Amino acid sequence: MGQHTYLAPAFIALLALGGQVGLPILVLTFLRSKKLNRRSTFVNFCITVIIYSLAFCILLYSGQYRRTQPNHALCGAQASMIMGAIPMVGVAALTIVLQLWATFQSPGSFVFDTFERPGVSFILLASPYATFFGYLLGSIVVVTHRPDSVWAHNGLYCFFNLRAIWYYLVPVTCLVVIALTALLEVEWYLRWRSLKKAFPLADKKAQALVCLRVCLFTVYTWFSLAAAFMLREESSPAVPYLFLAGLPLATFLVFATQNDILIAWGLRKAAPLETPPASFDQRAPTSNTTFTGDALSSPYLRESWP
């Protein structure tokens, strides 16, 4: 048994509640409801987090986490999936921020027009899965040639014990994603502030909530990705494991508590003339965005499904 096998009930509960119960319900709500419009990159991100949660549960669901030596094929499969799932979630989060960043560009600019193209939307949706399968296939090659490179020392999931993977391969990818996300969010915030100053009478509450949700979510994602690489040694502390497992539940809680979703689930009554508040993935035209006729006609200021 691994050092942290005692954490198995809490570890699997966090992953399952968020990634295998909450987020699937949220995605189905988006797909079935005609009143809820969400950008496809956001729905895509929710799907990647579901895959992430399943990848971390393979050893636990098999019941072999109590064994000193779990089945090697099973362990290799889980290690390969986790190897791909971690950067996949990071890339999916980056696509959301990229699409948000594009909405604050000047209408008619190169960036704004580029992100309206269907081909770009396809690339945004496909890039997380391309990342996943790239790392997955590479990991399978490693497992095939180095069968001893996989272990389940923590008693919760299997991963690689190769120094090159822990210190270079996945961390470099995630650090690049985190850096790009941070830069884009800073520029997004600066552009939002400039629009707020240009239109002082506009309703700022919805946009402020957008910033708050995105910031909270991004910070938690960063810490979760960082936690994945703090757990290199058998003597690693227990808290990072729970932080890692809590990412799906945190994602669900941050975005399932939006007003229009609560109304759709019948948990809150809509006011007679209430307009659902703008969310980070849903652009409703406001006085902050109706600065030109071109902006109003852009699919980035209303829902656009590729």
TrEMBL record:
The chain crosses the membrane at residues 6-30, 42-61, 81-101, 122-145, 165-190, 210-232, 238-256. Residues 277-306 are annotated as: Disordered. The keyword Membrane applies. Keywords: Membrane, Transmembrane, Transmembrane helix. It comes from the Eukaryota. This is Uncharacterized protein. It comes from Lactarius akahatsu.
